[in-house]
Amino acid sequence: MFPSVPSLRISPGVGPGRRVNPVMEIVKHYEDHPIMKKLKVRRDPFRALIQAIISQRTRDDVTDRVAERFLRKFKTPKDVAEVNLKDLVETLRDAGLYRQKAKMIKECCERILADGLDLEEIVQKPTEEARRELMRLPGVGPKTADVVLLFAGGHDVCPVDTHVARVSRRLGLTDSKEYFEVQEAVHEMVPEGERGKAHLALIQFGREICRPRKPQCELCFVRRFCPYGGEQA
């Protein structure tokens, strides 16, 4: 459990009389990091959805390997809907919670076919509308929907995973655990068009510096702006 920190509102701009924006400092730090390459390749919405589901509670390297194996075998929702659930389970076996994910993916694909949904068409809709439609799919929550919108539709959103939520709370952007309140707090700090970068930068920062356990506060380049880091001094 992270300690509560006071809410901290900082202007996205930086200039005379303005406090430094720690989120944008983090974005700037990771702007040339290899993780940013993920924004340069627009994914097929079906592939993005499958990868987002597989990624839940699973390391990136495992997610990439399992998703590639899965998508070589099952290229469309129809391929998934027609196969036995046991085959999906076996294909996903290396991922965390693979049995639950197999069931979720199969139910998603069955719903896509039953309702005649076109994922490519959905991700081209306005963000709020597209998110609502994706979240009607079985097991698809706001984070999974936003990952699809960002990487398959190019929407200007910052999906909130455990890293983004943890860093946001420690920086004092919010003390909420509610998805959209955390997302709004991040969005307020980030200029339009930069929210995908913020998502990836906060993830990398959370992995390298602002770790769940034993955070590297002594190495943190935004520590002087961070209530949590100040408590660790």
TrEMBL record:
GO terms for biological process: base-excision repair, AP site formation. Keywords: 4Fe-4S, DNA damage, DNA repair, Endonuclease, Glycosidase, Hydrolase, Iron, Iron-sulfur, Metal-binding, Nuclease. Its cofactor is [4Fe-4S] cluster. Gene3D superfamilies: Helix-hairpin-Helix base-excision DNA repair enzymes (C-terminal), Hypothetical protein, domain 2. It comes from the Archaea. One of its GO terms (molecular function) is 4 iron, 4 sulfur cluster binding. The keyword Zinc-finger does not apply. InterPro entries: DNA_glycosylase (IPR011257), Endonuclease3_FeS-loop_motif (IPR003651), HhH-GPD_domain (IPR003265), HhH_base_excis_C (IPR023170), HhH_motif (IPR000445), Hlx-hairpin-Hlx_DNA-bd_motif (IPR003583). Its EC number is 3.2.2.29. Residues 132-151 form the Helix-hairpin-helix DNA-binding motif class domain. The keyword Metal-binding applies. Residues 54-208 form the HhH-GPD domain. It is an enzyme of class 3 (hydrolase). It catalyses: Hydrolyzes mismatched double-stranded DNA and polynucleotides, releasing free thymine. Belongs to the Nth/MutY family. This is thymine-DNA glycosylase. The lineage of its organism: Archaea, Methanobacteriati, Methanobacteriota, Methanomada group, Methanopyri.
